[in-house]
Design goal:
single chain; alpha/beta; 9 strands
């Protein structure tokens, strides 16, 4: 292929691009294609465009760049690909090379670098916002409470309200470092309380480092690796110095960043990669860690005479080898698990996707809400706060109060003994 100047990240992906056999299986699982019917939004379509850029048959343009931004980063195409193309890495490369001409690239970079990229300033802004229009977490199940719209809770952030350490309430089994995640820290703090309760009931001593920062996933997925690396190395130093057995998070996105993205951010950097990989190896998604405790008979639950359905987060399904929540739920006597159709299809959140591509996001979320309602389950359990916020805020008004959205660990905390 004839490489063009300025397409350095795309050029580095040339071998990955050549893996694609153009079979089209990605069409059947791509939420944006299913919502619009446009081939250019599929993995096959975008790979063809990237090849055209390298061959010189396609010229960079704003509309072309925007196609790579118009992606949920749900990883479904990666999972279904028979050739094993790591598609999400291709889209990130394209976003890196084309960010200066895209409709949102510069704006996102400014946003990331002035918020999560400056933790102290970001925290100050959050405190002000929570004072001016924060909601009361005690009212979170009331109809019309605006937490689902992304407003912070009154008193955010939650990290500094937590203890430094929580002791196990059963036979000690080891030590866990807790990565709180921005969504939980600012909007859904009750998920953190539930997480601590279940972990300590499992015998874990929980350490909450107060100097942790955003995992960097928003910057990683949008190609701002400069910001992502600064956040990542800070977290590696913080969590690497705790001396814990495991690191976990109730946010599947954050856990995925630690486990998968961090080693890639520092690939080839010999002075750092050892520490990064050590932290990555210790990271487990919360469901994985709790299943480990369940199998060791360190976790027990009261019966639950009710029905639930589960929405699987994209990171759990496509990055961490599948959701572990069902194993935990199936261990609870009298609980009825009603499976929804395509439970692993993206909810339409996708971080900044739902902000910059609102119409598509709404269409995708509407489809997911309809699948949820088909089950008739009064409780919908999810494994990521982003999904929780998105689905809770999108439920039609006539069903408010009839369907309750919760993180899986909230129900487990109610039932743990």
């Amino acid at each position: 292929m004839r490489r063009k100047p300025g397409l350095y990240e795309i050029s580095a992906c040339e071998q990955e691009l050549e893996k694609c056999v153009h079979c089209g299986l990605c069409q059947a699982v791509c939420p944006t294609y299913l919502a619009t019917g446009y081939e250019g939004k599929t993995a096959r379509g975008k790979i063809s465009l990237m090849k055209g850029l390298l061959e010189g048959t396609v010229e960079p343009s704003r509309s072309l760049s925007d196609l790579f931004d118009d992606c949920l980063s749900c990883y479904a195409c990666r999972t279904v690909c028979p050739a094993g193309v790591e598609t999400e890495r291709l889209w990130i490369a394209a976003r890196q090379d084309l960010s200066e001409i895209s409709s949102t690239g510069r704006l996102k970079k400014i946003a990331f670098r002035s918020t999560i990229g400056k933790p102290s300033l970001f925290e100050l802004g959050v405190r002000l916002a929570s004072f001016l229009f924060g909601f009361d977490p005690q009212d979170r199940f009331e109809t019309g409470v605006p937490w689902g719209k992304g407003r912070p809770f009154r008193g955010a952030p939650y990290l500094h309200r937590m203890k430094d350490e929580y002791t196990p309430s059963s036979q000690p089994a080891g030590t866990v470092g807790l990565l709180v995640g921005c969504s939980n820290n600012l909007i859904t703090p009750w998920i953190l309380d539930s997480t601590v309760k279940v972990l300590t009931a499992s015998g874990w001593r929980v350490i909450v480092p107060k100097d942790q920062v955003c995992c960097g996933a928003p910057a990683i997925n949008n190609g701002d690796w400069e910001t992502a690396r600064r956040l990542a190395i800070h977290n590696v130093e913080v969590f690497g110095g705790l001396g814990v057995d495991f690191i976990t998070s109730p946010d599947a996105t954050c856990a995925g960043a630690f486990a998968r993205d961090y080693p890639e951010l520092f690939a080839g950097k010999k002075t750092l990669i050892g520490r990064v990989e050590e932290v990555s190896r210790r990271n487990f998604e919360l469901g994985q860690l709790l299943c480990y405790a369940l199998r060791q008979k360190r976790l027990h639950f009261k019966p639950f005479p009710g029905a639930v359905t589960v929405h699987d987060s994209c990171h759990s399904t496509h990055i961490r080898g599948g959701s572990r929540w069902r194993e935990l739920l199936n261990s609870i006597d009298r609980l009825e698990l009603r499976e929804m159709r395509d439970s692993d299809r993206c909810c339409g959140f996708g971080g900044s996707f739902s902000v910059f591509h609102r119409d598509e996001a709404d269409e995708i979320t509407k489809w997911k809400i309809n699948r949820i309602l088909e089950t008739g389950a009064p409780q919908v359990l999810v494994g990521s706060p982003g999904c929780l916020i998105r689905l809770r805020s999108s439920l039609p008004e006539e069903f408010q109060g009839a369907v309750r959205f919760r993180h899986v660990v909230e129900l487990l905390a109610d039932l743990v003994v």
